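Please review the protein record below. Tell me whether the encoded fold seems credible here:
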Amino acid sequence: MAALLLGAVMLAVQLQPVPSRPAVSGAEPGQQELVGKAATLQGEVPEGAAPNGSAQQLPQTIIIGVRKGGTRALLEMLSLHPDVAAAENEVHFFDWEEHYSQGLGWYLRQMPFSSPHQLTVEKTPAYFTSPQVPERVHSMNPSIRLLLILRDPSERVLSDYTQVFYNHVQKHKPYPSIEEFLVRDGRLNVDYKALNRSLYHVHMHNWLRFFPLRRIHIVDGDRLIRDPFPEIQKVERFLKLSPQINASNFYFNKTKGFYCLRDGGRDRCLHESKGRAHPQVDPKLLNKLHEYFHEPNKKFFELVGRTFDWH
């Protein structure tokens, strides 16, 4: 009799249902697989670490670039939406070997805690120009939605230089003038890395090898600076988010010279490192820069089927 009772108890234990993460309503092909990956990897997160029943999720959206295109502004504006949970820092998972070699478990642990209904977003601007990244992102989730914010290529080059210049200034280190980078032997220095980053059609070709254009939403970074609300509305629609961000969430700060955010009565602006004045460049050299990007810009417009108000 005792053996019979023990057997019944053992059978009851074995039949206990195994908890699983609920299916995502309306998940697209590949999305449910992503949820499954996250659920499997959750075992690596310490027990009790999730506050209020939230959990870390692999991102369903990535801001892939471009460097100095306005990625931080885009992320901050998108974070106004209650259904968005954004990673605070640039993760550099897909482009840095020391991170990628640690696997998706490491990547998951870099994500913010979020509710099941929230969209997890991370941004790493270097992804757009890193050749190995598109295939790696596709391997994680072929249905992921990608955000790419671009600016006038010439202006982006100047912003790129400005950031590095001020980084050196803060460390009390000398740094060459922008002319020394842009000109070599009397000609435009096409080996300057900042120029390469602005050859958008080259990098876009690489992404379109793995993702259809409908999976990549291009944000006009110049328009986002001048009038952010319409651009953010387009992002909401692309991500299939309910329209929660309003024009009242933005106000122009005359002192800083750009738009700041108003969230629940709290005002916040981007870091002082954003919106810095560009160096003065000789007009002739600037014209050379514009001429250099003329044909690459045309190729990019043809590739994506739309035009931008660039020089």
